[in-house]
Design goal:
Elements: H1 4-11, H2 15-23, H3 30-42, H4 49-56, E1 61-66, H5 73-87, E2 91-96, H6 97-102, H7 107-113, E3 118-121, H8 128-137, E4 141-144, E5 154-158, H9 160-173, E6 179-183, H10 189-204, E7 213-215, H11 220-233, E8 239-242, H12 245-257, E9 267-272, E10 285-288, H13 291-306, E11 316-319, E12 322-324
Parallel strand pairs: 1-2, 1-3, 3-4, 4-5, 5-11, 6-7, 6-8, 8-9, 9-10
Antiparallel strand pairs: 10-12
Bound molecules: alpha-D-ribofuranose (RIB).
The site of alpha-D-ribofuranose has 10 residues, from strand 9.
C-alpha cells in the first residue's frame, strides 16, 4: 500500500507539500498540486482519514442527536439527514440523548472531542445549558423542533399550533363533540403548541373540557394506558387527538381491546405522518410533518453554517403541516 512518502517521492516534493494538498490548508502552487494529485492516482494512494481529521480538526461527519431511536419518527428523519449528508460527502454519527442521559455519559464532550463538523439536534430533552456549551465550543448547530427564540440557534420546525387546530377542526367536521387529547410531555414545546391548538379550537365552539386532557410521553404504551383511563372515566368520548402517531397506535390497540369501533364509536387522529400509521388497520389519520424536507433542509442549513455561507436573516424556518385523512376519521357523524 502506497504511503505519503511514496507520493512525495514520485512527485519530487516534500511530505509537507503532499500533506498540504491533501488537507487543503496552506499555499501550494497549481502545477505542484496537479503533480501530487496525479501521483496519488497512479499509486492509488488513499489518505488516512483519521490522520487527516487530526491535522484538520475536520472529519466530514455530522452528529445527529435524537431523543428516542425506537420512535419511527426519528429513523425516518435520520434517513433524510443521511441521504442529504451523503450527497455532500458527509457521514452521520447517531446518538440518543435519552440513553446517554440515563447512563450519565457526557456525550456532548465526546462529540466535541471527536471533531464533529456540525450537529443536528432533534432532541428537545437537551437542556439549554448544554446547547450553550455546544455553541461555545464553536461547532455549528441546527436544532429541530426547538422554540424559535432559542438564542441565535438555527432551527427548522413545523407549525405545531396550526397542526393542533387542524386536527381538532377535522374531528369536529366529522361530527365529534367530546374530543379528548393525549398530549406529549408538557416540558416539550412541540407538545405545548399542539395542546394549545386543541384548547383554542374547542374553546371557540364551547366544547372544551379540561378533564379530557391527559399527558402522554410519545410512546405506544402511554397511548394504551391513557386510553384505558380516559374511557373508564368518560365512556362517551367520541374523538381522540394524540400529539404523535405512535401514541395513536397505542390508542387504537386499547380501543379495539375495549370493544370500541374506530371510527364509528370513536374517531382518532395523530400527528407526525410516520409510515407506521398506514401499516395497521384501520389506517390512522394524521397531521403530517414534512419529515424528509425537515431532515434535508437541516443538512443544507448546517453545511452552509460549516462553510460560513449562512444567511443570518433566515435563522429559523417554519414548515407547514398537512391533514392526511385516513380510515380512523372516515365516518361522517350526524
Ligand atoms: O413523535 C415524536 C415527536 O417528538 C414528534 O412529533 C416530533 O415533532 C417531536 O416533538
Amino acid at each position: 500500500m502506497a504511503t505519503i512518502r511514496d507520493v512525495a517521492k514520485l512527485s519530487g516534493v516534500s511530505v509537507a507539500t503532499v500533506s498540504r494538498v491533501i488537507n487543503q490548508n496552506g499555499y501550494v502552487n497549481k502545477d505542484t498540486e496537479t503533480k501530487v494529485r496525479k501521483s496519488m492516482e497512479l499509486l492509488k494512494y488513499k489518505p488516512n482519514t483519521v490522520a487527516r481529521a487530526l491535522a484538520n480538526k475536520k472529519t466530514e461527519s455530522l452528529a445527529l442527536i435524537v431523543p428516542d431511536i425506537t420512535n419511527p419518527f426519528f429513523p425516518e428523519l435520520a434517513k433524510a439527514i443521511e441521504d442529504t449528508a451523503r450527497s455532500f460527502g458527509y457521514s452521520i454519527i447517531l446518538t440518543s440523548s435519552e440513553v446517554n442521559g440515563d447512563k450519565n455519559i457526557n456525550y456532548l464532550e465526546i462529540l466535541i472531542n471527536r471533531y464533529i463538523d456540525g450537529i443536528i439536534c432533534s432532541s428537545n430533552e437537551i437542556p439549554e445549558a448544554d446547547i450553550n456549551h455546544l455553541q461555545k465550543s464553536g461547532i455549528p448547530i441546527v436544532a429541530l423542533d426547538r422554540a424559535v427564540n432559542s438564542k441565535g440557534i438555527a432551527s427548522i420546525r413545523v407549525n405545531n399550533y396550526d397542526g393542533g387546530i387542524m386536527a381538532v377542526q377535522h374531528l369536529l367536521s366529522i361530527g365529534c363533540k367530546k374530543i379528548a387529547h393525549i398530549s406529549g410531555p408538557f416540558h416539550i414545546n412541540t407538545s405545548l403548541e399542539r395542546y394549545r391548538g386543541y384548547v383554542d379550537t374547542l374553546e371557540k365552539v364551547q366544547l372544551f373540557h379540561p378533564s379530557l386532557i391527559v399527558e402522554g410521553d410519545f410512546t405506544i404504551e402511554s397511548g394504551i394506558k391513557n386510553t384505558y383511563s380516559l374511557i373508564e372515566k368518560y365512556p362517551d368520548i367520541d374523538g381522540i387527538f394524540t400529539a404523535n402517531d405512535l401514541m395513536a397506535v397505542g390508542v387504537l390497540k386499547a380501543l379495539i381491546r375495549l370493544g370500541k369501533k374506530v371510527p364509528e364509536d370513536i374517531a382518532l387522529i395523530g400527528f407526525d405522518g410516520i409510515t407506521l400509521g398506514t401499516a395497521i388497520e384501520p389506517e390512522i389519520s394524521t397531521i403530517a410533518q414534512p419529515i424528509y424536507d425537515i431532515g434535508s433542509l437541516a443538512v443544507h442549513k448546517l453545511i452552509s453554517l460549516i462553510k460560513n455561507q449562512h444567511n443570518t436573516e433566515e435563522i429559523s424556518r417554519e414548515l407547514e403541516v398537512k391533514l392526511v385523512q385516513r380510515a380512523t376519521t372516515s365516518k361522517i357523524k350526524n
